[in-house]
Design brief:
Elements (H helix, E strand, L loop, with lengths): L5 H10 L7 E8 L2 H4 L9 E8 L19 E7 L10 H14 L7 E4 L3 E4 L2 E11 L4 E8 L19 H5 L5 H21 L2 H9 L7 E6 L2 E10 L5 E4 L5 E4 L4 E4 L5
Parallel strand pairs: 1-2
Antiparallel strand pairs: 2-3, 3-7, 4-5, 5-6, 6-7, 8-9, 8-12, 9-10, 10-11
Helix pairs in contact: 1-5, 3-5
Biotin binds next to helix 2, strand 3, strand 6 and strand 7.
């Protein structure tokens, strides 16, 4: 599979009217693109793609499986958010929606956002997003791992029932350059509109939600809370309807699973 080519990525972005909006870099291997993208970062939007990561990480310190070199996309976008800090949690939602929009161009897949930061195809995860914020540096890093061209054997056995790739779902090899540019295109557009307001983004998040209307469980320090995922709040928080009838807003740091999900 062809290695990612930064010049080609720039060309594709220019064709979408985004020449020079991102400083695009590629590297063979890093520990984690979320850290490496910050090296000498001065505020100009930057993207770092890596073919492999030796210590890719997910939320809550979980390891992230980047897959065989050349198969998937692992990249991090560093930026000074165009939003006051109290709205930075929007970045997670905006990134999830950007991936969801990009994946909609690959029929027959029907991507859904598993609040707040995973993308699922049917009931298997195809993308995870890790937002890390550095308010004192006025900087946020959005790390994205998307399973693209991996086969079932490429996944470790423990992930085979819960993760999938675009190739497995579409039965075709997918052009990583085009998909990466599509995600960046939608991300750029959504970042711009999120600074103006969140109502239309929230509506699109609702339309593409895996959880809304379904029984879920939230894993909290005090124990497990069960309820129905009823709605999204004005900043994208998940409104849980508890068996008592009360509602509880969950913030993006919380972990939520479908109640019938195995893991
Ligand atoms: C999750 O599902 O918990 C989030 C996974 C995020 C993985 C991506 S891959 C690129 C970037 N670098 C990392 O170390 N993590 C993110």
């Amino acid at each position: 599979m062809a290695e990612l080519d930064a010049a080609y990525l720039r060309e594709l972005l220019a064709l979408r009217g985004l020449a020079d909006s991102w400083d695009i870099r590629t590297v063979e291997e890093v520990e984690s693109t979320n850290d490496a993208v910050l090296l000498d970062f001065q505020g100009a939007p930057r993207v770092l793609f890596a073919e492999s990561q030796s210590r890719g990480r997910g939320r809550r310190g979980a390891p992230w499986f980047t897959g065989p070199a050349g198969a998937n996309l692992a990249f991090s976008c560093a930026l000074s958010p165009p939003l006051p800090i109290e709205h930075w949690s929007r970045l997670t939602h905006v990134a999830a929606l950007a991936v969801c929009r990009a994946l909609q161009a690959y029929p027959p897949v029907n991507p859904k956002i598993k609040w707040p930061n995973d993308i699922y195809l049917e009931l298997k995860k195809v993308c995870g997003i890790l937002l890390e914020s550095y308010p004192r540096r006025n900087c946020a890093v959005i790390g994205l791992g998307i399973n693209i061209n991996g086969t079932e054997e490429d996944f470790p056995p423990e992930l085979r029932d819960i993760a999938t790739s675009l190739r497995l779902e579409t039965k075709t090899l997918v052009n990583r350059h085009e998909l990466a540019c599509s995600v960046l295109f939608h991300l750029t557009e959504l970042l711009g509109s999120s600074a103006e307001g969140f109502a239309s983004i929230r509506e699109e998040l609702r339309e593409n939600s895996l959880l809304l209307g379904r029984p879920v469980r939230a894993v909290q320090a005090q124990g497990i809370l069960r309820g129905i995922a009823e709605d999204l709040g004005t900043e994208g928080e998940l409104i849980l309807r508890l068996p008592t009838g009360a509602t509880l807003p969950l913030i993006t740091a919380e972990e939520v699973r479908l109640d019938d999900e195995v893991k």
